[in-house]
């Protein structure tokens, strides 16, 4: 039998890898991780963690704005300090994650890996072999294929800006666009969002999205629908966005038109791992078209949302599969999702749209005047609970400043299909967002 350097070798070190690789090594497997950039991947270093730190002062500013007269004055955001604070907090993350990886006895191999054959990944001319490989190379920002595309920037560049540009153009109207439009607008930049069509955040309840977009418009963000952005140009110190109805001068351009899988130039074709423009093709065991090669995280072509909780769940599933603790296919739980605008929009399970198609019961609540939400004078609180034929909650969505907490609170009720009687036995702290929200569930 062939001997390899490792039992399992991961390509990429994000959440699709490290959450599962650490417990896998603790089962006694010899594990290696190859990473070309910062350990921990996108989420801690240039995604979720970084973004939510930049957003914290926006939350504070919004709350002070609503409590004007009680809390004065409404704070302004010091961009430079905010970015420095973000950096100080996130700089510790790759160090901490590397420490946890190495304490578990895992080798970290720094460099860009390319598959040579089904058991070998080469880094800087050095082959590393393993019985099983896990490809977890994530996504990278899309770049519009238009003249002047090199003049635009990505989400990572935005979060590292030392000075906030006076005028920012954001292309696209998905998660990154709306979250960053919120942050830049609150910090004082003039933002224009160039939309592909006439709908932002298409995966979310459109009534809630419209309310958030209207609020951003009132705050000065301009939305250009069916923009048909065709070119970027540089004129002296300014940049010009050319679009269907004309052109607009700005100081900085953010291309937020989606993220694409890192599947090229890593040797997948050579070894026969199939992929397409959505990512690597896997079966229900996260196994690729080559038996001993698996994939995990955002790089997989999947219907599940490409988010950190999904990547963590997949890497933990592979821990169990590759250590022999399960031989069952992956069984995804309900994966919640939130867009960190202010107010936020969050959801889990069956959507209102699907519920209408299926004839499910929909309980809609307008909770702006509810006493708990009036503590900080929230001016937009709407939610919807979806019930199936057995009267179990199968979906929930909310727009409010606390929408993320609400969805987390309702999630176990959906995932475990609790009956009304069982939910009645859950006694929550009072006063609290969970107690307040669940009292309006039916
Ligand atoms: C701006 C932004 C904000 C986000 N906010 C949220 C959020 O609030 N909540 C949420 O759930 N999700 C959020 N996400 C998504 C989240 O970051 C991803 O779902 C998550 O990071 C996926 O983990 P992963 O391990 O699959 O990929 P990644 O974290 O991208 O890790 C892949 C790693 O592989 C490395 N790599 C690639 N190719 C090679 C190679 N050939 N050799 C060596 N190394 C290689 C890369 O350098 C990278 O470190 C956000 C993403 C972005 C961009
Ligand atoms: N809160 C979160 O969980 C969070 C936050 C940020 C990012 N993310 C992750 O990162 C991924 C990428 O975020 P994103 O906002 O870049 O992608 P996205 O898929 O959410 O949005 C892309 C946007 O670009 C638009 N677009 C596509 N092609 C275009 C074109 N040619 N011209 C103009 N617009 C075009 C789309 O219509 C859409 O509005 C998300 O899907 C998500 O997985 C998650």
Automatic annotation (TrEMBL):
The keyword Oxidoreductase applies. Keywords: Oxidoreductase. It comes from the Bacteria. Its EC number is 1.-.-.-. It is an enzyme of class 1 (oxidoreductase). This is NAD(P)/FAD-dependent oxidoreductase.
């Amino acid at each position: 039998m062939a001997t390899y350097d490792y039992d399992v070798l991961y390509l990429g070190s994000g959440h699709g890898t490290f959450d599962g690789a650490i417990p896998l090594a603790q089962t006694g497997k010899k594990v290696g991780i190859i990473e070309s950039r910062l350990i921990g991947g996108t989420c801690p270093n240039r995604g979720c963690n970084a973004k939510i730190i930049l957003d914290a002062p926006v939350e504070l500013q919004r709350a002070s704005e609503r409590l004007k007269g009680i809390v004065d004055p409404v704070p302004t955001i010091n961009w430079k300090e905010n970015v420095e604070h973000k950096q100080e907090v996130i700089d510790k993350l790759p160090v901490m994650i590397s420490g946890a990886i190495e304490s578990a006895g895992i080798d970290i191999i720094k460099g860009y890996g390319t598959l040579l054959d089904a058991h070998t990944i080469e880094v800087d001319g050095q082959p590393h072999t393993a019985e099983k490989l896990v490809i977890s190379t994530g996504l990278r920002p899309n770049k519009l294929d238009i003249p002047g595309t090199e003049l635009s920037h990505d989400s990572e560049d935005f979060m590292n800006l030392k000075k906030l540009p006076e005028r920012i153009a954001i292309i696209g109207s998905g998660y990154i666009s709306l979250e960053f439009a919120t942050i830049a607008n609150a910090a004082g930049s003039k933002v224009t969002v160039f939309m592909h069509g006439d709908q932002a955040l298409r995966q979310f309840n459109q009534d809630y999205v419209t309310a958030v977009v209207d609020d951003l418009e009132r705050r000065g963000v301009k939305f250009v629908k069916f923009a048909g952005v065709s070119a970027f140009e540089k004129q002296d110190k300014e940049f010009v966005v050319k679009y269907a109805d004309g052109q607009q001068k700005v100081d900085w351009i953010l291309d937020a038109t989606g993220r694409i899988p890192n599947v090229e130039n890593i040797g997948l074709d050579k070894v026969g791992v199939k992929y397409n423009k959505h990512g690597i093709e896997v079966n229900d065991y996260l196994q690729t078209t080559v038996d001993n090669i698996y994939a995990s995280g955002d790089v997989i072509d999947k219907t599940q949302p490409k988010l950190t909780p999904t990547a963590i769940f997949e890497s933990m599933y592979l821990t169990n599969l590759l250590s022999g603790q399960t031989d069952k296919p992956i069984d995804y739980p309900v994966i919640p999702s939130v867009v960190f605008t202010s107010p936020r929009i969050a959801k889990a399970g069956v959507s209102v749209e699907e519920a209408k198609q299926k004839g499910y019961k929909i309980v809609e609540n307008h909770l702006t005047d509810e006493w708990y939400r009036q503590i900080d004078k929230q001016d937009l609180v709407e939610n919807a609970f979806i019930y199936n034929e057995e009267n179990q909650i199968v979906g929930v969505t909310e727009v409010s400043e606390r929408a993320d907490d609400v969805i987390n609170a309702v999630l176990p009720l959906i995932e475990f299909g609790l009956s009304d009687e069982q939910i009645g036995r859950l006694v929550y702290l009072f006063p609290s967002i969970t107690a307040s929200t669940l009292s309006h569930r039916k």
